[in-house]
Amino acid sequence: MSTYSGPVFEMAHRQFETIPDYIEIPHHERPRILMPKRAVTVACPIHRDDGTVAVFEGYRVQHHLTFGPTKGGTRYAANVDLGEIAALAIWMSWKCALAGLPYGGAKGGIAVDPYSLSKRELEALSRRYMQEMIPFVGPHTDVPAPDMGTNEQVMAWFMDTYSMYQGKTVTEVVTGKPVSVGGTVGRREATGRGVAHLVGRSLERLGISPQGATAIVQGYGNVGSVSALTLAEMGVKILGVSDHTACYFDPKGLDLAAIEEHVARRGVLVGYSTEAAFDPAELLVQPCDILIPAAVERVIDAEVAARLKCRILAEGANGPTTPEADGVLDARGDVFVLPDILCNSGGVIVSYFEWVQDIQRLFWEEDEVKRRANQILDRAFHQVLERVERDGVSHRMAAMAIGVEKVRDGKRKRGLFP
Q1: For the chain, which domains are there?
Q2: For position 223, what pLDDT does the model report?
Q3: Which of 3, 89, 268, 286 has the most CB atoms at less than 10 Å from its CB?
């Protein structure tokens, strides 16, 4: 595993190591299941607006292609590295398998702060990255999607760049595109809606009414904001929200409509309020029924886990809880965990729908998209809980075991070529 390093990859590796003994995978099979099939590193030079040339490093990791093409987002962030991208690709594999999608996991990224670029520079970098990736991606090889720091517009640039090189429009090469150029209705909201839907199922399971229940959302980006708004529509009171610029908390509940109006104008939370300003380091440990970490990896460590005062931990982000924190939560036994590969899978599920619709050139109404997505989420949710009850394992172990088992069985049945 010398190609991959860093705390996020180490976390994904350690999570995987808890599974093979439980589901009795022979030692000699384990590296083939965990090791990514392919990793690509590219240099992406662009002309800056001041006339200088800047070079940014880009990555794409494809974990396995056992069931079909790989699938995964593209992240623009200053601290992105190959190890983090590999970890995210591995988690995506278990996520797709748990949901029953015909994909392996992938992830891509560029080490850049997207907010430091002008729109012209962002377009130039996005197109150059896709140009470098053309030999390695395609509708039946690897289908990129948005992630942190990217959006519908970036996906449109990706699709257009790929299409220009093919000499025809290939909408199915990426998902998360604007509806006007082959995207599907409901894709942008899909991850957040999925989080809220599974929180609703968890509340039912625990006998808690959403009317009067309370929630805190860390990370008020696409996933966090849609989760908060959807939960508020269900009657849940939102006590706290944060992003990388500001944090707000009010035990009486925040005015979510006013926050949305502010974010629509400013793009970020900063400047919304001085009265509700709060210490972001303490937000996660405030009393609430539902805690949604929807920002970045590894925000809940063992110390934070010991101090959590929530009943449901709904992981909107990828990898927000460390293995040490999992141990603390398992010992506590009073927190209902919705693990990331289940909780935030609504996005890849609706991305799958977009891919299918693009291939068929037949598009669905939003009600059908939501109905089908909820159906898949409910099936995965019940499979995980049945496994928990049958084997007495944690929610994360049950979810990962289902995903790993499907990947292992697929590799066994296909065999090893040549």
Answers
A1: 36-172 (3.40.50.10860), 189-343 (3.40.50.720)
A2: 95
A3: 89
